[in-house]
Amino acid sequence: MSRYEDVKESLRRNPRRWLVTGAAGFIGSNLVETLLDLDQTVVGMDDFSTGHARNLEDALRGDPARARRFRFLEADIRDPDAVRDACRGVDSVLHHAALGSVPRSIELPLLANDVNVNGFLNVLAAALEAGAERFVYAASSATYGDDPVLPKTEDSIGRALSPYAVTKHVNELYAGVFERCYGIRTVGLRYFNVFGRRQDPEGPYAAVIPIWVRNLLTGVPCVVNGDGENTRDFCHVDNVVQANLLAATAPAEATDRVYNVACGERTTLNELYATIRDGLALRRPALRACAPRYGPPREGDVRESQADIARIRDLLGYEPTVGVADGLREALEWYAEDLARRGGESAEPALGAVALA
Questions:
Q1: What residues contact residue 172 under an 8 Å CB cut-off, 6+ apart?
Q2: What pTM was computed for the model?
Q3: Can you tell me the distance from the alpha carbon of 114 to that of 151, in angstroms, rounded to the nearest whole number?
Q4: What beta strand segments (E) does 196-348 contain?
Q5: Which residue is catalytic, options 144, 164, 259, 273?
Q6: CB atoms within 10 A of CB 148
Q7: Are strands 194-195 and 41-46 parallel, antiparallel or unpaired?
Q8: Is 164 assigned a catalytic role?
């Protein structure tokens, strides 16, 4: 039995009280759902700046028994009183509320710092005050900046390329100081390009996979930033959920650290586009003729990205259970069904609006 299976069985036998910030978001709602599956008691906090009530509805599944073990607070992590209320009585905190997106941080550096640094510090301090045993937080592969070495190892980072990267590095520094000065056990998880169910295709800062799915199914051109040979280490959300539960239950000697969360593989954007297009072509054969358009590289983006996942394997017992290919098959189905539910999928793709091969 894997350590992850052991952890899930242990949590069922000895339930905890958890706080998930950013609970209505993509990753947060998946965490809420899994914790409720494991009979845990969960407090969720979100201000709906990017999250959605429908994500929480999906996680609760209309089940009154699940709803009784879930308390939701609509609040901003920059509000100290609200954060203290959310942390009251919790054993473990999974902190995922943040102002995401490299481009948004470049446009709004002061807001990025306020939410991602001041808000983070509010939650960390409140968790300490409440006596929480563990503080697990979403870090980011953006922290590696311009470091050219591949694969990325946790102890080697370059110069930051965006305000977002700076804020995420500052989070790591604060978490380490709080463990060493005040004793709260902290673990940072550096996520690499997470994808999966409930990832929102809407808004100016949406992630590439749901955007391309939506665009292909609605006849809108897909744009690749740069030449498409940029590489990313795509990671399905189920692997991220696993990493959070392993981090929240890891032995003390594994805390005061950051860990890469990924599959340890590289996929070019051109390869990603072809996989998405060909997967959707099983529904819409005409999509096989669609080719992307190419635009200028996006400011603040790194050229190459791949994680070394040896540390998280060795110290936390992490093993990716969903690879990129299998994860994309599941995700494409979910994105397509979600788009259809919202009434956004066209009856036939408008190929005239898409550059053709």
A1: 139, 143, 188, 258
A2: 0.93
A3: 31
A4: 223-225, 231-232, 235-236, 257-261, 267-268, 293-295
A5: 164
A6: 9
A7: unpaired
A8: yes
Looking at 131-207, list the stretches that DSSP marks H as alpha helix, in order from N- to C-terminal side. 163-182
* Residues whose CB falls within 8 Å of the CB of residue 58, separated by 6 or more in sequence, listed in order: 29, 33, 198
- The tens place of each residue's pLDDT in the chain, 357 residues long, gives 799 999 999 999 999 999 999 999 999 999 999 999 999 999 999 999 999 999 999 999 999 999 999 999 999 999 999 999 999 999 999 999 999 989 999 999 999 999 999 999 999 999 999 999 999 999 999 999 999 999 999 999 999 999 999 999 999 999 999 999 999 999 999 999 999 999 988 866 678 999 999 999 999 999 999 999 999 999 999 999 999 999 999 999 999 999 999 999 999 999 999 999 999 999 899 999 999 999 999 887 888 899 999 999 999 999 999 999 999 999 999 998 988 887 765 434 332 222 222
- What the block records as the tokens of 191 is 């996520």
Chain length of the chain: 357
Residues in contact with 43: Cβ distance below 8 Å, sequence separation at least 6, in sequence order: 17, 18, 19, 20, 70, 71, 72, 73, 86, 90
